[in-house]
C-alpha cells in the first residue's frame, strides 16, 4: 500500500528508489508505468496524466524493465530486444528497427549473443538483454526494477555507467529501484527512501543517506563517509536481529 507519494523527476536525472523488501518500490514503478492504477492521485508525464492513454502510447514514452522476465518464450536474444521497437511500428520488422535493436545489444556489450536462445543464456545476460530492449524502445523515461541484481560488480558498474551516459546525453529520466546504497549514492541525482509505502527521506544522496535515516529504515547501524564527494555507507551491525548464534 502506497501512501501520499509525491515527487518529480526531470530530464537528465536519475532517481533511485531505496528501501527494504516490501517497502513498495516495485509497486510504485508499476503505478508509474500504468500497470497498476492508484486509488487516488495520478501519474503525469510532461504535465499530462497517463491514465486513459493506450498501452502502446505509454510504451513510446516509458520503458519498463522488471526484476525478472517471468515466463521465458523460445525467443532469440535479438527477438527479445526487437520487442522494444513494437511501440514504434505496425508489427513489421524494418531495417531501421533491426539496426536499433543490434545497436542496443552493442551498447550492452552482448551483440555476440544476438542469435542465442534467450532462455539458454545466464541470468545476468538476460538482465542485460532486457535493458537493451528498453534502450531500443527509445522512451523518454526508463523504469528499471533492480537492474543490477543479477550482475557481478564489474557488470554492475558497466550498466550503471551506461545508464548514466544515456540519461545525461539524451536528456532522459530514469527511475531505478536499488538495494545497494553505495551504487545509489554514486549514480543517483536524487534518492527516495521508502518504508511501508511511505516516503521517509528524499533529496540528493548527501541529504537523504544519513546514519539516522538508514538506521530508521533498515534497522542497521552505519557510518557514512565520503569518497569523491559522494556518500559512502559502511554497515556496522543490525540494530535488532531475530537470528541467534549457535553455541
Automatic annotation (TrEMBL):
One Pfam short name: ABC_tran
GO molecular function per UniProt: ATP binding; ATP hydrolysis activity
Alphabetic keyword roster: ATP-binding, Nucleotide-binding, Transport
Chain ranges of the ABC transporter domain: 1-221
InterPro entries: AAA+_ATPase, ABC_transporter-like_ATP-bd, ABC_transporter-like_CS, P-loop_NTPase
Listed PROSITE patterns: ABC_TRANSPORTER_1 (PS00211), ABC_TRANSPORTER_2 (PS50893)
Protein's UniProt keywords contain Transit peptide: no
PANTHER family, alphabetized: ABC TRANSPORTER ATP-BINDING PROTEIN, HEMIN IMPORT ATP-BINDING PROTEIN HMUV
Protein name from the UniProt record: ABC transporter ATP-binding protein
Amino acid at each position: 500500500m502506497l501512501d501520499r507519494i509525491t515527487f518529480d523527476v526531470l530530464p537528465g536525472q536519475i532517481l533511485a528508489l531505496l528501501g527494504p523488501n516490501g517497502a513498495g518500490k516495485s509497486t510504485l514503478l508499476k503505478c508509474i508505468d500504468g500497470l497498476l492504477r492508484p486509488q487516488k492521485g495520478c501519474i503525469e508525464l510532461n504535465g499530462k496524466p497517463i491514465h486513459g492513454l493506450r498501452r502502446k502510447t505509454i510504451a513510446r514514452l516509458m520503458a519498463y524493465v522488471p526484476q525478472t522476465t517471468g515466463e521465458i518464450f523460445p525467443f532469440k536474444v535479438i527477438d527479445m530486444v526487437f520487442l522494444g521497437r513494437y511501440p514504434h511500428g505496425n508489427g513489421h520488422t524494418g531495417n531501421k528497427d533491426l539496426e536499433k535493436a543490434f545497436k542496443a545489444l552493442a551498447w550492452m556489450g552482448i551483440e555476440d549473443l544476438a542469435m542465442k536462445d534467450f532462455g539458454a543464456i545466464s541470468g545476468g545476460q538476460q538482465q542485460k538483454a532486457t535493458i537493451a530492449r528498453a534502450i531500443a524502445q527509445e522512451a523518454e523515461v526508463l523504469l528499471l526494477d533492480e537492474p543490477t541484481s543479477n550482475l557481478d560488480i564489474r557488470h554492475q558498474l558497466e550498466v550503471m555507467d551506461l545508464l548514466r551516459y544515456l540519461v545525461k546525453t539524451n536528456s532522459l529520466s530514469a527511475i531505478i529501484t536499488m538495494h545497494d546504497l553505495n551504487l545509489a549514492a554514486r549514480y543517483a541525482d536524487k534518492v527516495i527512501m521508502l518504508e511501508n509505502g511511505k516516503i521517509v527521506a528524499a533529496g540528493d544522496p548527501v541529504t537523504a543517506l544519513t546514519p539516522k535515516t538508514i538506521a530508521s529504515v533498515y534497522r542497521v547501524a552505519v557510518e557514512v563517509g565520503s569518497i569523491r564527494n559522494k556518500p559512502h555507507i559502511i554497515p556496522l551491525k543490525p540494530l535488532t536481529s531475530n537470528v541467534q548464534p549457535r553455541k
